[in-house]
Amino acid sequence: xxxxxxxxxxxxxxxxxxAVGGCAYISMDLGRLVEMQPFEERVIREGGPxxxxxxxxxxxxxxxxxxxxFMPRQGTLERLDSILELAGKDRRxxxxxxxxxxxxxxxxxxxxxxxxxxxxKEKRRTSVVACITGQGTSGAYMAALAADSIVALxxxxxxxxxxxxxxxxxxxxxxxxGIKNQTLTSGxxxxxxxxxxxxxxxxxxxxxxxxxxxxxxxxDKVRHRRPVSESDLEVIADGxxxxxxxxxxxxxxxxxxxxEDALKAVERLxxxxxxxxxxxxxxxxxxxxxxxxx
Length: 294
Description:
Layout: H1 2-20, E1 39-45, E2 51-58, E3 67-68, E4 71-72, H2 76-87, E5 93-102, H3 107-124, E6 127-137, H4 139-144, E7 149-152, E8 157-159, H5 171-177, H6 201-225, H7 230-236, E9 241-243, H8 244-249, E10 255-256, H9 259-270, E11 276-282
Parallel strand pairs: 2-5, 2-11, 5-6, 6-7, 6-8, 7-10
Antiparallel strand pairs: 1-11, 3-4, 8-9
C-alpha cells in the first residue's frame, strides 16, 4: 500500500509542477517507482514429481529492458536469464518445451538466445522440444534450432532464414527541398548506408558482404542442427516464410501438431512419464494455460 501511495504522490507532484509553471517542468521516470515482481512457478498440468518447464519466447527478440508506460519490462534475453537461473536450481525439471511465437529480432539477441538455450541444455543434460504456436521466423527460428525437435502448429509459419539490413536514401527529397548533405567523415566508407545520400558501388559491396556473412552463419546453424539436404537449403536460403507443412517438407520442422504433441515428444526424449508441466511468470502476469501470453 505504501508503494502505491509513493507512486501516486510522485505522479501528483509531476502534474502539479507542469500545470503551475508555464515553462519549467520536472521530468521523472515513474516506471522506476514500480517494483518488478519476482517470478513464481505456475502449474499448467498436474502430474508426477518430474517436471517439464515451458520456456516462452514471445514477441520481438531483444537483449535488454524497455518500458511500457509506467510498467518496467525485461528484454527477451534478460527474462530468459532470470528464468533459467531459477530453473537451474530445480533438479526435478527433466525437459523443456520452448514455446515460440515471435517474428524474430536483432541478430545479436537471436544468436545469444540460441547459444543460451544450447548451453542450458548441455549443462543440465535436458531435452528441449520447440513448439511454434504462431510465428517462428527469422531470429525466432534460429532460437528453435537449439531444440532437439521442433513441433509447429498447423496454422503457424516458420523459416524466413536470412538477414535484413533496411536502408533508404533521402538524397532525392533533400535535393528537392534544397537541403545539402555536409557530413564530414574520417574515411570514404564511414557513412556507408547513411540515409543522407544514395549508396555507391563500394557502399553496396561492403554492406552486402556483411549481410552474406551473417546469412551464411545462419545457414550453417541450419545445416548443423537440422537434417536438411542441399535441395532443401536451396529453398531455405532465399529467406521465404513457410507454413508448418511446407517447413516439414524441407525438414525445418519435425512434426505438425499441438502442445500435446510437443509434450509427448519431450516425454519420449527425456524418458519421463506423466510429468508436471510448469511455467515461470511474475505475480502480476496472466495465469492462463499453455497458449496464453503473460
